[in-house]
Design brief:
Layout: H1 4-10, E1 39-42, E2 46-50, H2 54-75, E3 86-91, H3 94-100, E4 107-110, E5 118-122, H4 127-145, H5 151-160, E6 165-167, E7 172-175, H6 180-189, H7 194-199, H8 206-226, H9 228-239, H10 244-251, H11 257-270, E8 276-279, E9 288-291, H12 294-307, H13 317-330, H14 335-343, H15 350-357, E10 399-400
Parallel strand pairs: 2-3, 3-5
Antiparallel strand pairs: 1-2, 1-9, 4-5, 6-7, 7-8, 9-10
């Protein structure tokens, strides 16, 4: 095992560990009581709900489109472009995020059927929050290409893409830089041994997770720089549902697990790596904007209280019930609140009884949700996004925010992943 002192030299610029001060997590007032307005912004590939101000919100959507295009062009250039839109909730500060996501995490990807998978991040103006946004977006894309990923690969690719960048002025994308965040974690926590890293089937928790993510980042960074072609073949084996350990032996036979730690140790000591840069012309996206009603905001908050859960912290059910009550009190047709009330807040046994009463093959939302094509929130068909279906087109009446064009797709680089 490599000494921590070597890791600290490798991460000299970030050898100290920054302690996160959570402060006092407080909830902004709802729009009707003087709080910030909430908007829904829809672009070609994203639906973003946010309490950011107009220009900041539109710029965040543009950043998301740029990051997505850069990831596809540099990492998955030969893969079919995934259809549909990604749901994102952007909160204006990390303090606001921590009202819902207890434990101090920078963000989370929520996957709670029947709701569509949703990325939630707060305060993306800060470097670590922006890195978490990239991390969760990388997970969203990677899982579309490789639905069954070993944990080290899933976290390694996501952390590797935390440093991807798009230069708007020069229209260039860059990937492969060293992550100061992950180096800091390695310096403080040490590295997970390769045998343990590759054999894990579930993610660890708390500090062990930070060590696991940092170790996964280091392994993927090493493979991208030292076994590029073989690593690409390994991924294609995974796409064919080959077991990870078999794919490793077939494509990375010169790196048996017992020799992997020494190879990565040498990589750390040598410290030589390369980055890829690609010219990527991306026109400013067309963004449609709709202001959310107060009832919709309450429904969205209820969703966050129930679903944005950190390990070791239970859902905040009482707060969610209060928000659902506010939403339905203002507008009984608020679909988010109705869906949460049925799927997540029903009394024990009630949901099973309702499903059973509908008969075989008719498990779904109750009759009171039928016919709510628009409701006070999203359309019923959008809940199919949780099952991999494409999201519908932007609703009529939304207004364009910026720019005449739509984001383009990357041209790709030979030999990259995918």
């Amino acid at each position: 095992m490599i000494p921590k002192s070597t890791l600290k030299r490798f991460a000299a610029c970030t050898a100290g560990v920054t302690l996160l001060s959570l402060g006092c997590a407080t909830l902004q007032a709802c729009p009707a009581k003087g709080g910030p307005a909430w908007s829904e912004l829809t672009s070609d590939h994203f639906r973003v709900r946010t309490d950011l101000d107009g220009q900041a919100a539109a710029d965040a959507v543009r950043t998301l489109e740029e990051l997505r295009a850069a990831m596809l062009a540099l990492v998955w250039p030969r893969a079919a472009v995934p259809p549909g839109r990604t749901d994102v909730i952007l909160l204006r500060s990390q303090t606001e995020l921590w009202t819902f996501l207890q434990g101090g995490a920078q963000g989370v990807r929520i996957d709670r059927r029947p709701f569509p998978a949703t990325i939630v991040v707060g305060g993306i103006g800060q470097a670590e929050a922006l890195a978490r946004l990239k991390h969760e977006l990388a997970h969203e894309l990677s899982r579309r290409f490789l639905p069954f990923e070993p944990p080290w690969y899933s976290e390694g690719i996501a952390t590797f893409l935390e440093t991807i960048a798009f230069d708007r002025e020069h229209q260039t994308a860059r990937v492969g830089d060293v992550s100061e965040i992950r180096l800091r974690d390695l310096a403080a926590l040490g590295r997970t041994p390769a045998a343990e890293l590759l054999s894990r089937r579930k993610l660890p928790q708390d500090l062990d997770l930070a060590q696991f993510e940092a170790s996964s980042w280091l392994l993927v960074h090493f493979l991208m720089n030292n076994r590029f072609e073989a690593f690409g073949r390994f991924q294609r084996r995974l796409a064919l549902f080959t077991r990870p350990e078999v794919a490793w032996k077939e494509e990375l036979a010169d790196l048996p697990v017992e020799a992997l730690d020494r190879a990565v140790d040498r990589y750390i000591v040598n410290g030589h790596f390369e980055t890829d840069t690609l010219k990527l012309s991306l026109p400013e996206p067309t963004v449609l904007v709709r202001e959310l009603s107060d009832a919709e905001v309450h429904g969205l908050r209820a969703f966050l209280y129930l679903a944005a859960v950190s390990p070791g912290h239970p859902p905040q059910e009482a707060a969610a019930r209060a928000e659902v009550g506010e939403a339905l009190g203002q507008d009984p047709s608020t679909l988010d609140a109705l869906a949460l009330s049925f799927y997540r807040l029903a009394p024990p046994g009630d949901l099973a009884a309702r499903k059973a009463s509908r008969g075989p093959g008719k498990i779904g939302a109750p009759g009171e949700l039928a016919g709510l094509a628009h409701g006070g929130g999203r359309r019923r068909s959008e809940y199919a996004g949780g099952a991999g279906c494409a999201h519908p087109s932007p609703r009529a009446g939304a207004r364009p925010a910026r720019g005449p064009g739509a984001p383009g797709e990357g041209q790709g680089v030979p030999g990259a992943l995918g």
